Structure formats: structure tokens, C-alpha cells
Amino acid sequence: MNNETLLKVSGLSRQFGGLMALRGLDFQVRRGEIVGLIGPNGAGKTTAFNVITGTIPPSAGEVHYAGQRISGLPPSRVVIAGLARTFQATSTYPKESTADNIYRGMLPRIRESLVGPVTGRYHRDLAASDVPAEIERILKITDLERWARHEAGSLPYGLQKKLGIAVALATKPTMLLLDEPAAGLNHEECNELARLLLRLRDDHGLTLLLVEHHMALVMSLCQRIVVLVQGEKIAEGTPDEIRQHPAVIEAYLGAPDYAHA
Ligand SMILES: Nc1ncnc2c1ncn2[C@@H]1O[C@H](COP(=O)(O)OP(=O)(O)OP(=O)(O)O)[C@@H](O)[C@H]1O
Prior knowledge:
The chain is an alpha/beta fold. It has two domains: about 1-80 and about 175-260, P-loop containing nucleotide triphosphate hydrolases (Rossmann fold, 3-Layer(aba) Sandwich); about 95-170, no CATH class. Helix content is about 35%, strand content about 25%. The protein is built from ten helices and ten strands. The strands form two sheets. It has a six-stranded mixed sheet, with helices on both faces. β1 (about 5-15) and β2 form a beta hairpin. α3 packs across α4 (about 130-140) and α3 (about 100-105) runs parallel beside α5 (about 155-170). The two termini are about 25 Å apart. Bound molecules: adenosine-5'-triphosphate. Adenosine-5'-triphosphate binds next to β2 and α1.
């Protein structure tokens, strides 16, 4: 990890009618960090992801990525800037194979792709002849090689979630936003996920921002944690600082998975 700020979220707010889902959120993620974004249900975590990735516009505030202002850009441009995300629910094409789903994630990178006009907007770093090797590379990173030809919808749930990560990786991001990657996973799948995320950071240089309710995972993986309650940041710090933070303890009082983390 170095000290370069990769993601800078400044005064980010989002209103839905009368509800302030995010209120002036400020935080930064440095290159090479794994940062957790936690908070009780309805705290605004997914809204924060949606605004950062351009799925919905902010009501106020800005997001900068690698020095570039990305707030206001559509999701396709945010991905090109290097920021990819995964979704809470599995979001792959169930009738297509694992490899074809990965290929879809890769499409905007392919030079002289027949899909859409060549506008020069994309970083077309892949020649069509290099696509099979790139799919193999992603399958290998995510340990999905033996599932390459299986229909995505036929994979066990844990592998479908992993495929969601593989599709995001196919865009060649420098940062990955993961929305509840451990939800629905059993103990062994969860350990495997933790190993994958550490490999992504250590061997592939990725920076990770993680929304997750699985506190043991968050506490063991993240260098820093940002805590949201009702749209507002109530604390930020190392796992040890967060565990002992009075406002966090109060917000989570009675939440059994936090108490046992
Ligand atoms: N499109 C929307 N329209 C209206 N209200 C919304 C919309 N999206 C989110 N909200 C509201 O904003 C608040 C924050 O929701 P959000 O999904 O961001 O929370 P969260 O922290 O991700 O919760 P969870 O942990 O349950 O996923 C909630 O009160 C939610 O009902």
C-alpha cells in the first residue's frame, strides 16, 4: 500500500423524496487498501455504492477517482476509469456459460469489437486474438477453470457470486467495489472468498472497498473501516478502533454477528 489517494468521496449526499439516504459522506481509499463500509440495514451503504459507480446521481457532493472527477459520469465511463463493482444479488446471465459471462465483461476492452461503434472512448487494450487467453487468466485468478463451460445459472450459489467478481475483473479494474460478497456463503466459501480478495490485492494490485455484514470477515480483511448509520458516517478507523468505538457499539448493540466478531 502507498499513500496515494485513489478514491475520494467528498460531501456526498443522496435524497429519495423526504429521506436523506446519505448525508455529506466523506472518506478516502488509498491505493492498495482494503476498506470496509459497514452499518446496520438501511444505513446507506448500497446507495453510496450506487452513487460512486454512477448508477444514480448524487444530490450533492463529488467523487474523484485517481484524480479524475467521476461523479456525474454514467456507469460505463466509471468502469473505464478503472472502478468496477459487484452486486448483492448474482447478476450474471444464467443461460450463458461461465466463460461467456466473463467475455461479456471484457467486451468494451476489445479492439475493433463488432459490438457498438469504435468511438475511442474505451481503453481497447485487447486484440480479439488475445481474448481466449484473457478469459483463461480470469478463470485462473478466480479458480473457476473447471466451470468454464457450465451454464452460470447451474453453478452452486457460492460460485455464482465468485463469477460476479470474475465478470468485474474482466473489465480490468484498478479498484473493485464489492456489495455483500459473503452474503449467503457457507463457512468454507467465506474463507475461500477471503483468500481470493487477499490475492486480488497482493498479487494483482487491486484496491478494494467492501460492503459487508459478515463482521468477522470485515474485521480480518480490512485495514480501515467506515461506519454509516442513517446515511451519516459515525466512525472511521482500524478494526481495533472500530470494535471499541462507543458510537459503533451503540449502533450495533444487540447485533449478534458484530458482538462475536
Ligand atoms: N431508489 C430508492 N428510492 C427510495 N428510497 C430508497 C431507494 N434506495 C434506497 N432507499 C432508501 O435509502 C435508505 C438506504 O438504503 P440502502 O439500500 O443504501 O441501505 P444499506 O445500508 O445498503 O442497507 P442493507 O444493509 O439493508 O443493504 C433506506 O431507507 C432505503 O429504503
